[in-house]
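Data availability (excerpt). The following record was deposited with the supplementary files.
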Amino acid sequence: MNLQTKLYILIIFNLLFLLAASLLYFESQFITYFIYISLAAALVNVLGYFSILKSNNDSKNKINALERKIDELEQTHQQQILYIKNQEDEIVKQLESIKEQRNIIEFQKQELEDSITYAFRIQQAILPPRSYIDKILSDYFIFYLPKSIVSGDFYFVEQEGDYSIIAAVDCTGHGVPGAMMSVIGYDLLNQAVKINHITKPSDILSFVDDGVSTFLRQINDESGVHDGMDISIVSINKQFRIVEFAGAYHELYYSHKGEMFEIKGDKLPIGMNIDGVVDQYTNHGIPVDKGDMLYIFSDGFADQFGGKENKKFKYKALKNLLLEICSRNCDEQKEILAHNFIEWQGVNEQVDDVLIIGIRI
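Predicted structure:
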């Protein structure tokens, strides 16, 4: 019950009391009752007054409490607004910092891509073009699939007198580090064949072995660089149908009379001659007939993971595959190898550069 309602009730009660008192006044025998009623009315008035006063004070206290609560809520609200604003400012600063870092990363990425693209152009300029190889080899294929834009694998094809020199080279690593090694390797092979007129495969390997160790200052481990390369190299004299092979950690497959034969290379890498002694490699003569196929390669195809069991392709499977396709023309062989590699790889990442060279005698 609010204050206004209580006042209305008190006024009505007093009016009723006055009316009753007037009636009793004219009746003298009721004077005593009049006194009692007056006292009762006075008591009720006093109690009503205090009740109204108390109710009024309670209302004020409630109002004050509500006002304090409102002030507290308003203060809390203002603090929350300030906190949110500070958070927004911090987020804006962080976003600006992230954008700045992203721009720096994108710039560095672009510089790296430009450098790799330029390295690719240099490597492509070094590799002999098909038009040049066609003058040296009449029937051949080169299946070349770098893991990255640039490659640690490369092929070398040159003519020196009556001898066609073909090499499949696998440098340490892949990508840019491998590509840098490939430039060194190609230059040394070119020096051996075109400048020093070396045509014997084992002697070419020894020349390159000495050159890598010297160029990279590996003797006595002076530079601490332990990079090198693995090479398969063949020399073909078409006039006398003489084929020679030497390998540094790489082998050669050749088809002959319906079978696939293997000649292993020496377990001696190119380079890393810490003792300063040049490695001596074994030279192999290969009995071939017209129509036989020679295959030299890097380890990228055999080492590729894939298939149902997600395992390496392996050299035995590669040898069997080459035996199956060796009677086909070279273009078809290349297509079959590419198809088999992609099918075997599936969703797996390419693990290394891939190089296979096939030559028809």
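Summary of structural features: Residues 129-360 form a domain with the Phosphatase 2c; domain 1 fold (CATH 3.60.40.10).
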